[in-house]
Known about the structure:
The structure is a homotetramer. By secondary structure, chain A is an alpha/beta fold. Chain A has 2 domains: 2-7 and 255-339, Aspartate Aminotransferase, domain 1, CATH 3.90.1150; 14-253, Aspartate Aminotransferase, domain 2 (3-Layer(aba) Sandwich), CATH 3.40.640. Chain A is built from 14 helices and 13 strands. The first copy, chain A, has helices at residues 14-22, 35-47, 61-72, 86-89, 94-97, 114-126, 153-165, 177-181, 190-196, 225-231, 240-249, 254-276, 295-301, 330-339, and strands at residues 2-3, 54-58, 77-82, 102-105, 135-142, 170-173, 199-203, 213-217, 280-282, 288-293, 305-306, 308-312, 318-323. In chain A, the strands form 3 sheets. In chain A, strands 2-8-7-6-5-3-4 form a 7-stranded mixed beta sheet, sandwiched between helices. Chain A has a 4-stranded antiparallel beta sheet with strand order 9-10-13-12. In chain A, helix 6 (114-126) runs parallel beside helix 7 (153-165). Chain A is globular and about 55 Å long. Chain A starts with a strand and ends with a helix. At the C-D interface, helix 1, helix 3 and helix 10 of C face helix 1, helix 3 and helix 10 of D.
Amino acid sequence: MLFFVNDYGEGAHEAVLAHLAETNREHLTGYGSDPYTARAKEKILAAAGCPDGDVYFLSGGTQTNETVISAYLRTWEGAVACETGHIAVHEAGAIEHSGHKVLTVPAHDGKMDAAELDAYLAAFFTDGNHEHMVFPGLVYLSYPTEYGTLYTKDELAALSAAAHKYGLPLYLDGARLGYGLASPACDLTLPDIAALADVFYIGGTKVGALCGEAVVFPHGAPAHFLTHVKQHGALMAKGRLLGVQFDALFTDGLYFSISRHAIDMAMKLKQVFLDKGYPLYIDSPTNQQFVILTQAEAEEIAEYAQFEVWEPCGGGRMVVRFAVSWATEAADIDALAAILPEK
Amino acid sequence: MLFFVNDYGEGAHEAVLAHLAETNREHLTGYGSDPYTARAKEKILAAAGCPDGDVYFLSGGTQTNETVISAYLRTWEGAVACETGHIAVHEAGAIEHSGHKVLTVPAHDGKMDAAELDAYLAAFFTDGNHEHMVFPGLVYLSYPTEYGTLYTKDELAALSAAAHKYGLPLYLDGARLGYGLASPACDLTLPDIAALADVFYIGGTKVGALCGEAVVFPHGAPAHFLTHVKQHGALMAKGRLLGVQFDALFTDGLYFSISRHAIDMAMKLKQVFLDKGYPLYIDSPTNQQFVILTQAEAEEIAEYAQFEVWEPCGGGRMVVRFAVSWATEAADIDALAAILPEK
Amino acid sequence: MLFFVNDYGEGAHEAVLAHLAETNREHLTGYGSDPYTARAKEKILAAAGCPDGDVYFLSGGTQTNETVISAYLRTWEGAVACETGHIAVHEAGAIEHSGHKVLTVPAHDGKMDAAELDAYLAAFFTDGNHEHMVFPGLVYLSYPTEYGTLYTKDELAALSAAAHKYGLPLYLDGARLGYGLASPACDLTLPDIAALADVFYIGGTKVGALCGEAVVFPHGAPAHFLTHVKQHGALMAKGRLLGVQFDALFTDGLYFSISRHAIDMAMKLKQVFLDKGYPLYIDSPTNQQFVILTQAEAEEIAEYAQFEVWEPCGGGRMVVRFAVSWATEAADIDALAAILPEK
Amino acid sequence: MLFFVNDYGEGAHEAVLAHLAETNREHLTGYGSDPYTARAKEKILAAAGCPDGDVYFLSGGTQTNETVISAYLRTWEGAVACETGHIAVHEAGAIEHSGHKVLTVPAHDGKMDAAELDAYLAAFFTDGNHEHMVFPGLVYLSYPTEYGTLYTKDELAALSAAAHKYGLPLYLDGARLGYGLASPACDLTLPDIAALADVFYIGGTKVGALCGEAVVFPHGAPAHFLTHVKQHGALMAKGRLLGVQFDALFTDGLYFSISRHAIDMAMKLKQVFLDKGYPLYIDSPTNQQFVILTQAEAEEIAEYAQFEVWEPCGGGRMVVRFAVSWATEAADIDALAAILPEK
């Protein structure tokens, strides 16, 4: 059975596992106070071009989003996100559980439009009743988005400017950041992101790690962030588990090279569908490919390949997602190409 | 430098690491839906003698306490704990962050007294103003306690009876459960705990795993617990990381054998202090040993051994903690014995 | 200056004030345990045709919505409301502050459509990822809606059936309930509402009281609701303030007769605008009238009458709200008619 | 039946009721934007000697405590209170519901000791594990305390200094502030309180109003406090109800003169008990008197007077509270004196 269900279907890259194994019996202090964690932070800040920033490691995406967002917001504030944003839909209300509303603006192929954001914020602050409403307190973006799409540097700069115009920090959810930066469609660098966002995270769970996300604060973390992390159940006793993994991922550019491999696999996969005549739902430049299938096609393909049904799209058809990752092999795509019938 | 700072200072037991490595490239579905997680659950329920129960894996202790407790409590309820309980002191207000008060009763060497619990609950429900107060909604115990002490089977049965008399579930925090069960002072078995507690967790982070706690619900989990876990940021995408580790820990009794080793080391360590004439703060039967040192003694020992300062105890003296774990070797204790001066 | 800004611009109906004055020096116990509160509850339950139900008095609408909704929801649940619902827009995130998401469905002139509600709930429970999403846990409606519109008995029955089909309670926000029931367009009675909703409130603040809303639970209140109310800061020490007022409002049908007066005034006001050629934004059958004005018209009218600007509606025009209440006098409408120019 | 149950057993002072009646039909805008509210604020700031401060009116004590405290605290912070403080015991967990722990220090006749507060704060900030604990973020005092006792000016200054030494604001709960200031034992003025506390409230519910507490911020309110109030369900649509009452209470010193009357009654009541030989539990200088009774005495007195049982005090005896207020008449005390037997 071929596996294209998601990008977290395997363990960790071998170099990550090896680093865990070789440091396994070293006696290290807890909660991220060990030297591997320190080294990983240093390497990440160097890669992001913000040596004076802060880095914290958390274990998963929803946890990271909730912990970071609630550290920035005051009780009367909410987070502005696309209506398709992960925090707005698929985090089981984690943001609301911490007391904050997710305020939504329209999504265009998963992306927020800077002009619409500006208009939304302008309308809020000029509404005569705005003191009876939730104040926008932070702007949340995903890069790549939930639909695999990317912002251009100009688009991200415009969103950053719109947020800052109203005094709001910009937070970028980089659960798949590596796959965005490695895309041929990307005109952004990690330092560009550090320059435009006030806080972002570099996803590890989906890019080579067993677990772990690196939260980067280019201009420093909010006060007492460690205690905030602890309170939110997100402080690992064995912080080394995260530090050692990111130390490996940011050694010799591993994070970037495995991301490029995934993108090569994604482009190869996309070409298979195009060659066979299957329509794409979105022309995604990253590791998630969204294809439109009929019910019959989906059932037939499901006999030899696993994928995820995304949403119905009318006429009895459906959008399905085929995801690849650092762990996908060219042979997997070749096998799919060999068996997938022409449409 | 000898290491007795804590019981989470090393990585994972080699068999755990090996199981992670050997399953690393298998394609598995996420969020704990994989066969290794299923197998680990089955093994744990068998070991606990409650085959119809439920098991969920979470990544750390504070997260587990907050997620489990808030799943049981309604808004007007709080958790009853010892004043020295982990949730009352060292979780940065995680329980309160989820909206619930920690109601405290006295601690005796870290232990709750069943008669005092009963008296507390009786006083609450007969207080004419109790509708203006936080209702006790769950009883929280640690086993072993934060001071390394253990409840006897009779004591635990009495606490269980007191809680149930008022309709409250009993929750047992087993961050160091293995070290409790392996102690010569323990007259309880895992099935005993499953029979007396309504929910408990088997700690992995401190007992052989990189991370992970197994929450056991002998009579089944609360409705929609998976969504609750997700909302609390505690659902790992790569659930395999937890499932595979506990599958290894509950194969061939590994969890119990490594716990027994730790207890052997702890008893050997205790004997070193007793032989050299150092007073114990508490006669702990488990892996944490609490010793009373003068300032001068502490400074001298700190030159060759790491330990944790626990609290001042009058007369310029202090309580310090020496912790051992599954990873401590006999040679470490011998080395300490060779260098520690007689008092 | 004529006053049409809102329906809470005056104090209390004279009979309400008089009842407060005549009972003022009686020594009464607190927190709603007094005989006036008991009598008011009895009268309300009789009027609603559910003598075995419960009634609680709270002081204001947002407080009532937050307190009632959070008493029904578990952590993983949210409240389903129209996108224009008061809890979704104008309560400063009170529902989210208590940890719950407001899940929105489209509004049609402020009303929820039963078929759309059913489709929304069906889609949720059949979504393969719904365990990662906020569960709908209660349906919230306003009657009259924020746009002054009313549900017919059939519409409300269909909404009730749709909610109950999925096991969700139906909650009806009756901040202006009197004005709904008194409308000629209304085919519902108070007992009808008690039969279709699981909980609703009878608004006092906007209908003759200084403050106060009567929450009615036709089948009984959730457990320990008093403590829940206290925790939410909503339990008045001088519960008499609310009980005495509702005792007056539900004596000799005062609540209903003053509501009918307000509706007479509203219809008279609507006719003035129609006669003068001003377009209505919505043909509201209740005490709030929404008129479309040009900027110039609005400025001119603002010189002799106060109203509220609601929202822009294109072409430089705006929707404005003229509200009447139990306190509006026919002379006020006549004065407006005398001065308002023909369009 | 004589009434000494509490100090909120009657309605409002007649001058307050009269002011409500005389302004009843004036058309006023909502949410505290009316001129009576503005006037009341001005009068209160003048009386407190801080004309540049801010005043907000809320409806009750628990609501006020929760709303004010949560406006000051960040997620990782808690409020320091006496173990007998109202927020620690009798507010049904309202502070915890807003996410914050109540950190307790010992109470001495209901009072906090400045040296103990300083020691507590010093111990916290020097604890090596304090980043894993709840940070103290505000100091909460009651004046008078829950036991009717008062801080001297020196004591309050010392507490203020201790809080400020660690950067914490001092919040004073003045539910019975009038009765404290009017006591012969009081050496503080309202301006003294405004100089020593960062925020405090002047209780109206227990001192002449139907409801209402005036929160005074001598140096200005936190940002967006109105929205915070709204989110916490504490913003009254008819803000006039609070503004008009406080306008009356702060006209011609009414608040102070009715408080003095209550204290006269309290001293007269205390003398009755002393003359008859009943022991006092605490020598309270304010309107709450705590008397020790045997079970038989309590039962006998309960036949002609209502009071509140406070707590058992050993030997089968109990502490009971006799409360007087602005509404208590000398004849009530005389009647008690006439019937109460000598002990």
